Amino acid sequence: MVVHHSREDLATLQSEIVARLQQAGASVVGFADLSPLPERATGGLKSAISVGIALNPKVVAGLAAGPTTRYHAEYDRVNGALAQVTALAADMLRERRFVATRGPATVRTADGGRDTTPLPHKTVATRAGLGWIGHCALLVTPAFGPALRISSVLTDAPLTHAVPVERSRCGTCQRCVDACPAGAVRGRLWTAGIPRDQIYDAAACRKKASELAAAQGIEETICGICIFACPWTQRYLRRSGVAPRVSR
């Protein structure tokens, strides 16, 4: 049975989704138009909700030299919180009889030795107007820099979409390029559709991150140096009252 919703109903639904998700801990919420993307990536669903939760600034302030056990715990905490928030969004859409699917904040599938996913959460986030892709291949947001975790909910709901971000705002900044201990960040500015390999060496990053994490007794492949180094992250730390420290 087809259920019809007026524009007013849909606008009210979107406002309710934003309010409920923010109450549940979301730091940013945006709505993306997926229609230009391949159906194999979207499953034929034309809209998405992008959700981000900022990392604790006190934890981020300790990442200048690499991952810490506090960061590992925070990483897991935020991933768990994102799972709850996206489940809430999906439930709200299904209550209105829309299709809604979601995935975990971290997804890895083997593809020629690379970590890939058919529709990265950061692609959805840029299409939702939340930010751009930095030199280090992470989503960078004006409010939090790359110091947040993101996830997505795909839906057939005819939502009102944001204007996509299609170009980098990193400009001439090379902070993460200089800070990366793996030399994985190539320094090329991102534009929508550019292959990841042209801006970032995922294999080199993964190898060095594994080494740094293992040295701290952490089994997860995480690092965080580029997150700390980003000037947008440093602004977030200052705004939070956390004194930034100089990255190595």
Order of helices and strands: HEHEHHEEEHEEEHHHH
Number of domains as seen in the coordinates: 1
Q: Which shape, going by the Cα principal axes?
A: globular
Structural class: alpha+beta
Spatial strand sequence of the major β-sheet: 1-2-8-3
**Could you give the count of β-strands?**
8
Q: Taking Cα atoms only, what radius of gyration do you get, to the nearest Å?
A: 18 Å
How many helical stretches?
9
**Unreliable stretches covering 5 or more consecutive residues:** 107-114
Query: What summary fits the major beta sheet?
Result: 4 strands, antiparallel
Mean pLDDT: 91
Q: Helix coverage percent of residues?
A: 25-40%
Strand content: 5-15%
Terminal CA distance reads: 60 Å
Describe, in plain words, how this protein is organized in 3D.
The strands form three sheets. This protein has a four-stranded antiparallel β-sheet, sandwiched between helices. It is of the alpha+beta class. The chain has one domain. It starts with 6 loop residues before the first helix and ends in a 9-residue tail after the last helix. The protein contains nine helices and eight strands. About 3% of the residues have low confidence. The chain is globular and about 55 Å long.
